[in-house]
Amino acid sequence: MKDYSKYLIAEDSTVLEALKLLNELSHDVLVLFVINQKERMIGTLTDGDIRRFLIKGGKLENCVTLAMSKKFHYFDKQVTLSKIKEFRDQQICLVPCLDINKHVLDVVNLKINKSILPIDAVLMAGGKGVRLRPLTENTPKPLLKVGNKAIIDYNVDTLISFGVEHISVTVNYLKEQVKKHFDTERNGVKVNCIEEPEFLGTIGSIKFVEKFYNDFILVMNSDLFTNIDFESFFLHFVQHDADMSVAVVPYSVSVPYGIFELSGRNIKGIKEKPTYNYYANAGIYLIKKKLLNMIPDGIYYNATDLMSALISKGMKIIRFPITGYWIDIGKHEDYAKAQEIIKHL
């Protein structure tokens, strides 16, 4: 659970005490939330508020309520993406979440959190990484390091930066190492490791996640190295009212010869050295939670099997192009490429 107490100050505190607290936040957002005796928020206090108060003749021993601003922004009931955009546009970085009685439930730091997405995430981390041997003989592929950080950590940390608080990792091969890796919370989020009893494909093990907290589930391979914008991915999914969205990467095939257009044995035309453009599966999916019931229990099942099942029922599957970088670290050359990219990030 995130600790936001460092941003709170009691209404009977002095301006000097507030300055000391703000000084401790020197590398953070310099805002304090003033709380009354009933633990209700009654105002905000910044270093600018204090500076203006002192210029007008205020004293350091005065109560903070004399210097605070009584008008403040907050999330009411639910954090919404529209509100996040509104606060970003106004360059408001620290926003409290308040209940109906103005009690502080949480604090959202928009300098740290790129968004607050209403999704659960499941990362598939059970594979053997055969093509990366001998590197994966004693280390599971998700724990191989790119730069000074495990591959899977780039994905987990990115999800957390988008406000995802419910993250599961399905494990199988060398599972104890992955479970130990996530022993402790990171940035207030506990990553849950789910044991896959046998190899169940790229989505089959999701059925072992006991509880989902949101209506939208993000599923992804844990060994991807990408800077996909998860907020844009989610908004695109919602905007098009899709049942499933598949992240894709552009893939071109150039043929170095002239290609005949045929009708039976007859040549109808020729394309000289054509290039064909496609979209390839990036291994990242958004799915409505209610559709997880279509995944059978206890059998090998891939995400592409779920796509086929949805298509056969006439359900809506859309694609979301990744415009940044994306590497599926499956082979030694992919691993080397990721190591090179990280030097420039």
Give an overview in words.
It is a single chain. The chain is elongated, with a radius of gyration of 25 Å. 22% of the residues lie in helices and 30% in strands. It has 345 residues and is an alpha/beta fold.
The proportion of residues in beta strands is: 25-35%
Helical content class: 10-25%
Number of strands: 19
In the sheet with the most strands, the strands line up as 11-10-7-12-17-14-18
Mean pLDDT: 91
Largest sheet: 7 strands, mixed
CA distance, first residue to last residue: 30 Å
Secondary-structure element order, N to C: EHEEHEHEEEEEHEHEEEHEEEEHEEH
Structural class of the secondary structure composition?
A: alpha/beta
Radius of gyration: 25 Å
Unreliable residue stretches: none
Number of helices: 8
Name the shape in a single word.
elongated
List the helices and strands and how they pair.
Blueprint: E1 8-10, H1 15-24, E2 31-35, E3 41-46, H2 47-55, E4 75-76, H3 81-89, E5 94-98, E6 104-109, E7 119-125, E8 145-146, E9 149-150, H4 151-161, E10 167-171, H5 175-181, E11 191-195, E12 216-221, E13 224-226, H6 230-239, E14 244-254, E15 258-263, E16 266-272, E17 275-288, H7 303-312, E18 317-321, E19 326-328, H8 332-342
Parallel strand pairs: 1-2, 4-5, 7-10, 7-12, 10-11, 14-18
Antiparallel strand pairs: 2-3, 5-6, 8-9, 12-17, 13-19, 14-17, 15-16
Short structural summary:
With 345 residues, the chain is α/β, with parallel strands linked by helices.
